[in-house]
Fold this sequence. Notes:
There is one protein chain. By secondary structure, the protein is mostly helical. The chain has one domain (2-284). It is built from 14 helices and no strands.
Amino acid sequence: MQLLKKRIGFILAVILYGTIGMLLRFVDLPSEAVALYRGLIGAAFILLFQLVRRKLPEWSAIKKNLVWLLLSGVGLGLNWIFLFAAYVNTTVAIASLCNYMAPIFVIILTPFVLKEKLDPRKLPCIAAAFIGIVLVSGVIGGKVGSPAGILFGLLGACCFTGIVFCNRRMQGISATDRALMQLLLSAATIFPYMLIHNGGRIPFPTDLRSGLIVLTLGIVQTGLAYCLYFAGMAALPIQSVAILGYLEPIVSILCSVIFLSEPMDAFGWIGAVLVLGAAIVSEILPEKREG
Length: 291
């Protein structure tokens, strides 16, 4: 039952992540500033949540996992930076496709890095999910994108791969403490980058709508979602983390179609069905028992 709750929480987190792109369309702020505020507001929300529950961060557990927290927090900040750079240098679809090579990297490296055996029954699901993302991205339409944009997207994927492995290495630390430290460290990583790109100034929301959306992104899509996400990541099989992660761009695309009236061709719909089908089949497969 506990594992089921974490699986549901992980799926909810991924769905919340998928709504970020749609909400960003209504924010009058540079993307790196939004990323910084996400990290700071999300961390503040988690800390307040802990204080309300009269549960302070467990500094002994944080100290024990400090190296992995530092690496994953910086990796999270770099992932956002590289992804935003990819958006600038190529299409959103190509940038997202390159960034979502991360699950493939995780699957390939897991036997070597974590010494975890992969369930071969789930490999076709992973392949189907990746094919689905390719179809949704629109690459088949002939838009390859610039080499710089592709490189930045792949670097973002490498950073996220590192985040997954760092989280699997942590022991004896709660999901809230993990999310709190990683968000603070990601904000610290993004801050100098934001200053450089904005001439040394800190952009602030100039209208009520942007302010409310940034606050929502920080509390719901970051603070709450990251607690659910990291709790699931620590407990779920690595294949489930990889496959369910592909739901995020699908949710993002569907939001753009439904709420922003952006078109999606037949290949896109086929891809969406492939990803959703792969996720469902992967999760209903019974756990493979040794021996």
